[in-house]
Structures are given as C-alpha cells and as structure tokens.
Prior knowledge:
Elements: E1 2-3, E2 9-10, H1 16-49, H2 56-78, E3 81-86, H3 93-101, E4 117-123, E5 129-132, E6 135-140, H4 144-148, E7 161-167, H5 172-175, E8 178-182, H6 192-200, E9 205-211, H7 218-230, E10 235-241, H8 252-270, H9 276-279, E11 283-285, H10 288-300, H11 313-421, H12 423-428, H13 438-499
Parallel strand pairs: 3-8, 3-9, 4-7, 9-10, 10-11
Antiparallel strand pairs: 1-2, 4-8, 5-6, 5-7
Membrane topology: Multi-pass membrane protein
InterPro entries: Dynamin_N (IPR045063), G_DYNAMIN_dom (IPR030381), Mitofusin_fam (IPR027094), P-loop_NTPase (IPR027417)
EC number: 3.6.5.-
Amino acid sequence: MRNLGNGHSIPPSPLKLFGQAKKRINDIFKEIGEYIYESDNFIQKTYKNAADLVTAEDAGIVKGFKEKVDGITEVLARDHMKVAFFGRTSNGKSTVINAMLRDKILPSGIGHTTNCFVQVEGTDSNEAVLLTDDSDKPKSINDIKQLAHALSNMKLNSNKCIRILWPKEKCRLLKEDVILVDSPGIDVSPDLDEWIDEHCLDADVFVLVANAESTLMQTEKNFFHKVSSKLSKPNIFVLQNRWDISAIEEDIEEVRKQHMERNVQFLGKELNVVKPEDAENRVFFVSAREALVSRLHEDKGTPTPVGALQEGFQVRLFEFANFELTFEECISKSAVKTKFELHTERGKNINSNLRTVMEDVHQRSIIRRDEQSLIFQQKSDELDYMEKQTKLLTAEIKEKIKDMVDDVERKVACALNEEIRRLAIIVDEFDRPFQPDPFMLNDYKKDLHTHMESTLCRNMVGRCTATCKRGLDNMDLYMTGKLSAITAAVNIAFRCLFTQLPLTSHSLQ
Length: 509
C-alpha cells in the first residue's frame, strides 16, 4: 500500500499493468525469435540442398523476419511510459515532478527556472548521473543547476534535453519504467513545433500545469492545439496548481467551478480529446509545493514545520494523490496500447508471413514427395517386371542352351563317327616307314598314335568349331534381343504413364 501524504493509503499502482504487459510481450517475441531462428536454419539448409523446394526469395524473407524480430526485441527493451509536463513559466512544473518523485531533483523556484528539457528516468545504478545531448560522458547531478537553470551562464538552448538517470530504488515511478519530462515555459520560446516533434511525439500522457490564480491562457491552449494536430487524441491532464490559495479566498468554490467549466470546455469541446462528461476526471486542484514538503518530511520521518501547509491541506494532498492514481491508470493503459499495439501487429504479420512461407515450402515438399513416391513406385514396378521377365528369359535361355548342347553333342558325335570311319585314310597318310624291329616298333607306334590324334583333333576342330560358334553367336543375339525388348517395353510403358500425369518435374519450378 502507498501513502497519500495525509495518513491514508491507496491500492497498489496500476503501473504494474505496463510491466506485466512488457514482460509478456518480451516473452512472446522471445518465443517468436526462437521459432524464426529454427525456421531460418531449416530454410537456409534446405535452400542449399534443394533449391526447387526453397527459393532465394524465401530464404531472404525469413532472414528478414529474423532481423525484424531482433529489432523489435531491442526496442521493447527500451520501451517505457513517458509523461511530459508543460505550462507557462513559474506555474510549478518542476515542483509537480519533484513531488511525484518525492525528492528535489529538478531546479525550481521563483521566475523562469527551467531553461531546457529535462528528462528524468530510472537507472539500476545506486548513483545518479546526468547526460547531455552533446556528450555521452556522465556528469555530476549537481551540474543540473548550471545546465538547466535559466539564471545560469552555462545554460543550454531551450530545445536541448538533459537526461537525469536517477536510482530506481529511490523512486517508485522510475522503478515502474516511467519517464518524466520537464519543459521550459511555453510562453518563452517560439519553437513549439520543434519541441513537439523532438520531445512529445512518443509521450503517452501530457500534463498541463496551470496557475490556479489565473484562468487558462491562450498560450497554453495554442500549444495543446498543436499537440492535438500532430497526435490523435492525446491524453491530457490539467493540474490547477497553487490551489493552497484557497485557504485565504472566500469565494473559492465559485473560482473552482469557473476553472472546471473552462477546462472541461477546453478538453472536451475545443480539443475533443475526451468526452465532456469525462473531462472533469482529467482536472485536479492541487498544491505541488505542499505535496512535496509533506512527502519530503514524511519520507525522512520528521514532522512538517508549522506554516508549511495551509488550512485544508489534507484535501489538496488527497487530490494530488488522486491525480497520480488516475494518471497512472491512464498512462499504463495508453502506453500498453501505443507502445505494444504496433509491435503486436508486426508480430502477427511476421508470424502470418512466416507461416505462408513455411506452408509454401511444405506444399512443394508434398508435391516432391508425391512425385518421388510415384517414381519410386515406377522403379519398383519396373524392377518387378524386369525380375519376372528375366526369370522367364532365364528359363527360356536355359532350355535353349540345353537344346544347343544336345545339338552340339549330336554334331560332334556324328563328326567323330565320320572321322573314325576315315581312320584308315589317316593311317595311310602317316608317311613313316614301318619298322618291324622290336626295338623300333614302340617308337613307330608312338609316332603313329600322335599323328592320328593330332589329325583327328584338327579335323574335329575344323568340322565343329564353325558350327558351335554359329550356335553361340545366335544364342548371344537372341539373348541380347530379348533383354533389349524387355527394357524397351518398360521404358515405353512408363513414358506413356508420365504423359498422363498432371504433375511433372516442371510443377516445382
């Protein structure tokens, strides 16, 4: 529970919604990033190995998704809620911010004190530092008085911005990723358009700090008309500051009613940023000085000095706390919508487009699978047909070989019989004289035997070789013809099959 500064407590801050939404969307984009990383690896590998399934365009698109998600993740890490405070000089803008931060961080006082934009944001460090546009080198927080104070000789130009990195542990708002931007008085610079373009376009909430001692000025109205022209229905709160004057005014209720009517008219009808019936909930009557003093002493555990708070301060402190609660509800919802809605849509588009790419690849894969299955079935059928035909051919060839062997045997036997009948002629052809001498007779017989054997073999070779070779050649031609006929029949059959297919290899191009 948080303390209002008057002893009462209010429920936990609605700012938790932004933190929860930020964590949730970061987790979602982490999952998207992992999915895209896996998809990118798959697409790149497939593109290298099967360019007909994944095109170069597909590979480039998925890689682009990876870069987009990395960029969104980086932006999400920096996303925060931003509130910008505007008003005329000395209306108490810096005091309001100090009261909300419960510390005297920004220079404040009588006159034109804030010379440039001052952005207060949280840091995890325990030391507060100051950064300027012209340098990344951290400066001492004490330099804020020289750089941002309008009375300093070292002051910056009004369109420049000083960043104060304040320890998150010291401030609840900063811990919840809220950034507060203080501005110079809108009545001291003509560069309002430049201010809006450089410092306001990403603001979730605008707070107009008005002076309750005077009516809403045309200068203030003109500025927010410019803001409204550049942003669609900006969230604007009006703080009627220095309402502690009510303690000494007699007709204060009439003054309050007059301020409320004019502010409601301005917000609800002139700017048309909120319904007239809801405009009253955007206007608060506060004393930032009293809120700051009360909170400083409360945090220190010391009593507030007598006279520091005017009569009826409890109501004004409650009003300030009520403003903070309403502001927190508004900025949290607005920031979730403005900061995360675009990222959410981009994430949806990335997922949708990635799904389209993956479905296209999947569809091509299905076509390739079906085509390959058909080819596989074709080859299987072809192989089965070849096996059957080969078995039939083998059986037929074996039978023909058997017939050929039988035929050769008959022809050889016939030729051998004829040669046997010619043995007498072969013997007569032996021209060596007969030797009756027993010693010479054995040599004679051997020579005769050799002569008859060589002559018989020579005659048999002469009579049978041509016939056998002719039979073998015929068998070889027959086998070759049969195998060629089988192969040709298979090719013709499957060529006819493919001409009837609606899907061809060109379907994948």
